[in-house]
Amino acid sequence: MNFHNYLLKQAEPILNDIYQSAFVKGIGFDNLSQQQRDYYVAQDSYYTDEFSHLFDLTFTKLTTKQQNNQPQTFDETVAHDALLASPNILNIPPDDHNLAYLNHMKTEIMTGDATNAMLALLPCTESYHLIGKRYLNAIAHNTYLPWLEYYTSSAYQAFTQWSWEVIDSQIPDWQKLSISDQKHYLNTYLTSYQFELSFWEHAAQH
Question: In terms of CB atoms within 10 Å, which end of the chain has fewer, N or C?
Answer without folding.
Answer: N
